[in-house]
Amino acid sequence: MPIYQVTQRINAPADVVWKHLSNILAWPEWLPTVTAVSPLEGKTCQIGAKFKVIQPKLRPAIWQVTKLEPGQCFIWESTSPGIQLWASHTVRIIGSEESGVELQFRFSGTLGVFLGWIAGSITRKYITTEASSLKVLAESNAHDEAFFQSDSRLTSGHGSLTSGRWTGDSP
Q: Rounded to two decimals, what is the model's pTM?
């Protein structure tokens, strides 16, 4: 049974990383490996939730969340005749402003082992791209949040940032 895994260090707090990783419906906005996500049962990452996921070069798949540790990990599975797919998404705290993500993907079943060997290259490419894309998004988001928190003009009631333009008191 082929298992593929990637880990990525991210210069962002674990809660920021988790916010993006667990927001499955938003994946098409930042993940080049996901074209569309449709909720079938539940709209959030919760045990039992089902999502239809469309990815380039792959058949659409129905994924169901089977394990959830909020803020840390979720596992989901997809099955079709002779094939079971399993994917784990884990966020680890490294420090107050640093975390890591570990993505694992496993093929099993009568045809799953064979499919895993055939699709190994694209699977490695996709999970590597997903970890890298999450890193870019979370680090950018963490930087933006730190900027807004450090600039008292943005939180003191002396103006606001609207559509990328500052209105209010002069800096």
A: 0.82
